[in-house]
Design a protein that fits this description.
Elements: E1 3-13, E2 19-29, E3 33-37, H1 44-51, E4 59-64, E5 67-68, H2 73-78, E6 80-83, H3 95-105, H4 112-121, H5 137-149, E7 155-159, H6 167-182, E8 186-190, H7 194-200, E9 203-208, E10 211-217, H8 218-225, E11 227-234, E12 250-252, E13 258-264, H9 272-281, E14 286-293, H10 296-305
Parallel strand pairs: 3-8, 3-9, 6-7, 7-8
Antiparallel strand pairs: 1-2, 1-4, 4-5, 9-10, 11-13, 11-14, 12-13
Helix pairs in contact: 3-5
Length: 306
């Protein structure tokens, strides 16, 4: 699949000397949902700001759908919709005027039918004549999304789009994201709600200290770095592990009624059979067994920690 965003040897050092980005090389595929994860200060917003032409890079090149974001700024920016973290709108403009004006900024001809559909999708149609200052924080976030989509971009950046919003908006927005992808829109999102990335993304990128430390298909990442966990419920509680069980990767619950065994999904011999034999030898009777896999959050935390 061809890339719609191509980033090569990208650096950003601010006047203070802080190096926000350090030799970023990244390609975003056309039509995919790409989740960029990283702790606070990792460089996520700086990277998005450079692609969108808000911040100038210190070195390197960025192309958006074949257009250099520096040399061919207008053409590149017209391909991009951005939903920033900050809620920045004119307090005294109506919702309709705000979204219509944003469409006009990109030279798009008026299309009331499209804007009506957009506002209805975001549950804003009833608020179309309301002034921005009259809206709640969640409603203002919806308007920011409508502004980003007003000129029908081919690339949509969502920078922490659901931070501090209600569950209803979060659900509505992800329904819209799925529909946009079906229409061929490429979506790059940053989020602290890692379960959203786990549910929505096709690929995951992890950035830390200004460097991309991993880019992988989500399913492959889960298989490569994930662990499985076997939770063992005991008939009777134990105060400490028998010596014969110390060689296993076991965690004991506070009440002593359960043990959690973690093992690598790639290993042919997962050690479960040997563990059950040792439990029987230690006269520990098993009441129930339950297996689960590592979440993306666990994988992310371990990657950044390491």
């Amino acid at each position: 699949m061809e890339s719609i965003i191509d980033i090569k040897n990208l650096f950003k050092t601010y006047d203070s000397g802080f190096k926000a980005l350090d030799d970023i090389n990244l390609q975003i595929k056309r039509g995919e949902i790409f989740a960029l994860l990283g702790p606070n200060g990792a460089g996520k917003t700086t990277l998005i700001s450079i692609i969108c032409g808000i911040v100038n890079p210190s070195q390197g090149t960025v192309f958006a759908d074949g257009h250099d974001v520096i040399k061919d700024y207008r053409a590149a920016r017209a391909k991009i919709g951005l939903v920033p973290q900050e809620l920045t709108t004119d307090a005294f403009e109506s919702v309709w005027a705000t979204v219509s004006f944003s469409r006009g900024l990109f030279g798009k001809a008026p299309d009331n039918a499209y804007l009506e559909k957009l506002l209805k999708q975001l549950s804003l149609w009833d608020k179309r004549n309301a002034k921005m200052r009259e809206l709640s924080g969640g409603m203002k976030r919806r308007v920011m999304i409508a502004k980003a989509l007003s000129h029908e971009p081919e690339i949509l950046f969502l920078d922490e789009p659901t931070a501090g919003v209600d569950v209803e908006l979060r659900r509505d927005m992800w329904d819209m994201v799925r529909e946009l992808r079906q229409r061929g829109v490429t979506i790059l999102l940053t989020t602290h709600y890692i379960e959203e990335a786990e549910e929505m993304a096709d690929r995951i990128g992890v950035i830390n200290s200004g460097q991309i430390i991993l880019v992988e298909e989500k399913t492959v990442l889960m298989q490569k770095l994930g662990k499985k966990h076997l939770q063992i419920q005991l008939q009777q509680p134990i105060t400490e592990l028998p010596d014969s069980l110390h060689s296993f990767d076991l965690q004991q619950s506070k009440d002593g009624y359960s043990l959690t065994y973690s093992f690598d999904v790639k290993q042919e011999d997962n050690g479960i059979a040997a563990l059950l034999e040792e439990l029987a030898s230690a006269n520990l009777q098993v009441k129930d067994l339950h297996s689960s896999e590592s979440s993306l959050e666990e994988i992310f935390v371990n990657l950044v920690k390491n």
